[in-house]
Design goal:
Layout: E1 4-10, E2 16-23, E3 30-33, H1 44-50, E4 55-59, H2 77-90, E5 96-101, H3 103-115, E6 119-125, H4 132-135, H5 138-141, H6 150-160, H7 168-175, H8 178-186, H9 196-207, H10 211-222, E7 237-242, H11 250-259, E8 264-268, H12 275-278, H13 280-295, H14 299-305
Parallel strand pairs: 3-4, 3-5, 5-6, 6-7, 7-8
Antiparallel strand pairs: 1-2, 2-4
Helix pairs in contact: 2-3, 6-10, 7-9
């Protein structure tokens, strides 16, 4: 197992973030931007594969896991992007390849909007560019009268989310059951190839999070739109998604690829929103190819030269 070190990083507004570092080698540095509810553990296969040749950093979003609550209660996507900059600055990184998963795609776009000179390339996994809550479950809710009401419903849930605390220990137990996984697979929310152990560990951690802060981040994410950024992106871009992703439907990735000059798109058959835990080998090889062909890093050539 790769050794992951951690340290506290102070954000621009004084919020304390828990940051992580692992790996090393001659490859370009990688910044991992989590999905909502994700942490460094969710990248376990990615860090093991790429940590042999790349320095990798990440952090817990403010208010989640080991990061402290936001000073001033600011959980906007733009602030998460400022946090990302604080992390790479703390580790002395001048430029990074940004790898975003789900919500991390929006954070990646915001980082490019604000600090394009610090971004060597983008790897965007299971994400969207518009308001995520407007397109989530689009194939299922296309004609449903509930669709326009989703943001208001989630705002209401945020207001009463503190009531969920007494039930969280039970929720953790439920997500650990075989029945819960069966339901998720039957509903098409995860693929049969899912690493069940890794997913259950992640879901259990999410179920135990502070729900008011989690919902505040979710609703801030729902208000964010990065559409204006797409034509401005000049760095190499790789987009990866699954054709059965209900949270960020594949059409969103196709639209991103069409609007970003030179972007590459990989659609994984049978992949859902959790492709990094369903098809890690495919993703690793495709990202490695992207780093070699678009950013000029060829580990095989380096090995031969050594």
């Amino acid at each position: 197992m790769i050794d992951i070190k951690h340290q506290t990083v102070r954000a621009h507004d004084g919020s304390e973030l828990m940051a992580y570092e692992c790996g090393g080698g001659p490859g370009p540095a990688l910044l991992l931007c989590n999905g909502l509810g994700g942490n460094i553990d969710a990248w376990r296969y990615f860090t093991e594969f790429f940590g042999k040749r790349h320095r990798i950093v990440s952090w817990d979003y403010r208010g989640l896991y080991r990061s402290a609550p936001a000073v001033g209660n600011d959980y906007s996507v733009s602030t998460h992007a400022d946090d990302a900059l604080a992390v790479i600055d703390a580790y002395g990184m001048q430029q990074v390849v940004v790898v975003g998963w789900s919500m991390g795609v929006q954070v990646s776009f915001e980082l490019v909007r604000r600090h394009a000179d610090r971004v060597l390339g983008l790897v965007l996994v299971n994400g969207t560019y518009g308001r995520p809550l407007a397109t989530a479950f689009a194939p299922l809710l296309k004609s449903s009268p509930l669709k326009p009401m989703i943001p208001a419903i989630l705002r209401a849930v945020e207001a009463v989310s503190f009531l969920a605390e007494p039930a969280q220990p039970y929720a953790v137990k439920v997500v650990r059951t075989k029945a819960a996984l069966t339901v998720l697979k039957t509903a098409g929310l995860v693929s049969p190839t899912l690493d069940e152990k890794a997913f259950v560990e992640l879901a259990s951690q999410v179920a135990a999070l502070n729900m008011p802060r989690y919902m505040a981040i979710l609703n801030s994410l729902g208000d964010h739109c990065a559409e204006a950024v797409l034509p401005q992106i000049a760095c190499p871009v790789l987009i990866i998604t699954g054709d059965r992703d209900l949270f960020t439907p594949v059409d969103q990735s196709r639209q991103m690829a069409a609007r970003i000059a030179g972007a590459e798109l990989m659609v994984i058959p049978s992949g859902t929103h959790y492709t990094p835990l369903e098809f890690p080998e495919l993703i690793h090889l495709r990202v490695q190819k992207f780093l070699r062909e678009r950013l000029g890093f060829d580990p095989e050539a380096l090995a031969k030269a050594a």
